[in-house]
Amino acid sequence: MKKIISGLIISAGVLFLPSCQKYGDDISAPSVTISVEPANPSVGDVVRITVQSNGQYVSLYTGDEGHRFERSRIKAIMDHDWESFSDTCYRVSYAKNGEKTLYYKYFKDYNTMDEVYRDFEFFGAVENVQLVRYEKDDFPEALMLMSYPGTNQLKFTVTDRRIPSGFRIKPDIHLFGGLENQPGFSIIESRYVACDEDKAVRKYANNIKVPAYFGLHTEQLEDYNGTPAGYQYERCAQVSDRYWAVTQTNDPLSGRPTEGFYQLADLYNNDSYLKPFLDCGEKLVIRQIDLYSTYRCAQEGAADSPWKYDLDGDGVQETYNCELDPDTGLPVKEADYVNYTGFQGDVYISFLEMGTNEYEPWNTGVNLGSVYSTSGISQVYEYVYTEAGEFTITALATNVGNKQHSGIDYSEDRGNSPDNYPAKRSTASVTVKVSE
């Protein structure tokens, strides 16, 4: 009988014996070998991977997406001791000279507008930018308690729905981890208080959401996927309805205002240029992100639509799918109110998290055993590749010594840091070419 775990089939008949050896401080590096049959399989073939080792712990990286040893956290730890790992792998700054790299997640941490303007730039028809404080019971027109009552919130007013408006940050971050690890998960805790015209249009159309748009500006750090290092890419896109569909606090139809969630990874995954960088985020840096509180005040229409306007005064006529009043940006006909996607009014933000300013490899392996046998471990695993390509299969064997207790004050520190455990590791790898 075979047991299937995450796509790997573990063959029966392998005998594990309890360990008689105890590892102290003086541990030796384990041995490990790997062989594969067939060496040149096709997509859908069963690939038999034989791993032999005398290590206590054995892991296998099959080399396909999400399972590459070269992109794994343990590889980074092996290359950099644990103490230096945080500085060499977690926090790598890619800021250009003279640019800021850090912005706070909580506006409660800002005390002056000078601090805000250090990290944020405002564009478009934005006025009255300020830090304000509200107690939990007096947030303007809120239908749900806000976070961090009595602390600073960022408030600004969008004064003209016709003009794309919002704020920008320059985070200089990587987006990494592959789509399955949900990189770039981002959140803005926001409250939108619309003006009377906006509220009336949405109430008539039963359309309470303010769709989010953002502009992404990236720079390629090295040659990759046919484009050279230094290549700069820009894209402005609407976020999926699942993310940052912000409701208005003063719209009785909304029931309650909500935080806005969105995934930068979704934008990457749906963009032909950005998608290849999901699994090698260190090759690309996000230089700037523009977050629009209002982008276009009505949905853009088909290219052959007769409704063309230069509402924002940039000299370019955009095409819309309904007739608009150029002076207000609102649909002329009430039947077209459902197409309205703009916003004009006050915006309140208390929390912002944009991806991460840290970089860490995320690819993972599969645990092949954690019981040491005096006769060694010999296991055969069967794996099926679902796409063609060249894949490097890596086996990692680890021996770990007894915990080092000296110098640890458990009344103060109860952590289980790897620093406290001596370990030695060995790897073996083989490359297979999978054909269609």
Mean model confidence by pLDDT = 80
* Broad structural category: mainly beta
Over all CA atoms, what is the radius of gyration?
27 Å
β-strand number: 23
Largest sheet: 5 strands, antiparallel
Write the CATH fold name of the largest domain: Jelly Rolls
Specify the number of helices.
5
CATH architecture of the largest domain: Sandwich
Q: How many structural domains in the coordinates?
A: 3
Q: How far is it from the N-terminal to the C-terminal residue, by CA?
A: 30 Å
Would you write up a description of this structure?
- The chain is built from five helices and 23 strands.
- The two termini are 30 Å apart.
- The relative contact order is 0.26.
- Strand 1 and strand 2 form a beta hairpin.
- The chain has helices spanning 73-79, 82-90, 113-119, 196-205, 264-269, and strands at 3-5, 8-10, 32-37, 46-53, 57-61, 121-123, 126-133, 152-158, 165-169, 185-194, 209-210, 213-220, 232-238, 246-247, 260-263, 284-294, 307-309, 318-320, 345-353, 366-369, 377-384, 389-400, 423-434.
- Residues 1-22 have low confidence and may be disordered.
- It has three domains: 3-82 and 366-434, no CATH class; 107-295 and 341-353, Jelly Rolls (Sandwich); 301-335, no CATH class.
- With 436 residues, the chain is mainly β.
- The strands form six sheets. The protein has a five-stranded antiparallel β-sheet, with no helix packed on it. The chain has a five-stranded antiparallel β-sheet with strand order 6-9-16-12-13.
